[in-house]
Amino acid sequence: MISWLRGRLAAKQPPTLVVDVNGVGYECEAPMSTFYALPETGADVTLRTHLVVREDAHLLYAFATEDERRLFRSLLKVSGVGPRIALGILSGISVEGFALCIEAQDADQLVRVPGVGRKTAERLLIEMRDRVKELASAGAALPPAIGRAATSQHEAYSALVALGYRPVEITKLLKAVADETASTEELIRRALKVAAT
Predict the structure, then answer these.
(1) CA dist., res. 189 & res. 93, Å (int)
(2) How far is CA 114 from CA 79, 89, 180, in A?
(3) What class, spelled out in words, does domain 67-196 have in CATH?
(4) By CB distance 3.0 to 4.6 Å, which of 12, 47, 107, 144 could disulfide with 121?
(5) How far apart are CA 65 and CA 62, in angstroms?
(6) Cβ neighbours of residue 98 closer than 8 Å, sequence gap 6 or more
(7) CATH architecture of the domain with residue range 4-64
(8) Alpha helices per DSSP H over 140-183
């Protein structure tokens, strides 16, 4: 198993990137959340990886954070979800946003992710409910258990997605304005204010 790669970012063209490790080019597929975090081509990079072995290919998937890799591996255990759909989910929603969707049982938000239909979304809600808690106990930076604060964060997240912000940007904005007592409207207002500065 290849656990991580450390080397020079030789090429990046979503969904594929190439890392030059001592003269060997490792071609990987990565979610857009990882692409947003990548440095310029030619810079040094360290990525967590997951190797999928099939009869016809060995496929390497790369992630900017351990939380992304944990969620990817957990998604692969859901029936009907393969690497393509798992990458699509990570590209369309942040790890924190996904956890909020599962906690709130929000199939509508999941269906907005390209490649996820209604049946897959409902299966994810059922099968990932306990796994999200396992991910949190494994050290993933997931949001607190559902409550008023989590619901407000989830609603604010959905609103910012609708406004066209990327999942990675939304996560940073909501972390910057985190407040357990704030309403959804207040969180959105604060996030937009931070985004404008």
Answers:
(1) 21
(2) 18, 8, 31
(3) mainly alpha
(4) 107
(5) 9
(6) 71, 89, 132
(7) Beta Barrel (2.40)
(8) 148-162, 167-176
